[in-house]
Amino acid sequence: WHGDYEKNMSYTLIEVRCFLQDFLNHSTAKQNLVKSYELMLDFYGIVLCDEKTGEVRRAKHWEERFDNLNSHTHNSLRITRILKCLGNLGYRHYQAPLVRFFLEETLVNGQLPNIRDSVLSYFMFAVLDKKKRRRLIKYAYLNYEPKDEFVWCPKKIQKLWSKQPKAAKEEAADSLESQEDTVISDNESCNNAEYESHEGEETFSHNED
């Protein structure tokens, strides 16, 4: 296929799809993925609380590991890859809990300031479930200061959220989701373009290990 590189790309795509399907049907492989995920979480000072839901919390040694993560921000690129891996290999439901954890740590608890932008710009938009992603964006907005510098969803959606009573702000507003679909989707397209650029930067960052 010399010179016919489209053919090679198509073959590779088919090969990858076959691999993914084989992986999803292999219970041992999936169990090993969870073990690997737990290992990486431990490296970042996080523990998987519930294998069914993907809920995570701080590990006992979180302070030491958070300091390492905050000092070596190229690890945020690895976390982006981990999130993508979870989404593609049958653990999509693990994505939102991990992103929510990082949003809470950065925006509410004031931890990990050096990876906050990555959490907002890349971690959130790696979540494949659109409903959960919108809830994460809303959670981020409600806990972000100053509000006028929040750029991860359209201003018209921010105004809707700002007008809600305090009690309502603490939950995802399902009644607003149909109104948000089109507007947020447009914004997500822009963020996804930036997200792909971010992926392209990984080679350089990983060489600095």
Automatic annotation (TrEMBL):
It comes from Astatotilapia calliptera (Eastern happy). Residues 171-209 are annotated as: Disordered. Belongs to the opioid growth factor receptor family. It holds the Pfam family OGFr_N. This is Opioid growth factor receptor (OGFr) conserved domain-containing protein. GO terms for cellular component: membrane. The lineage of its organism: Eukaryota, Metazoa, Chordata, Craniata, Vertebrata. Residues 195-209 have a biased composition (Basic and acidic residues). InterPro entries: OGF_rcpt, OGFr. Residues 181-194 have a biased composition (Polar residues). Residues 20-156 form the Opioid growth factor receptor (OGFr) conserved domain. GO terms for molecular function: opioid growth factor receptor activity.
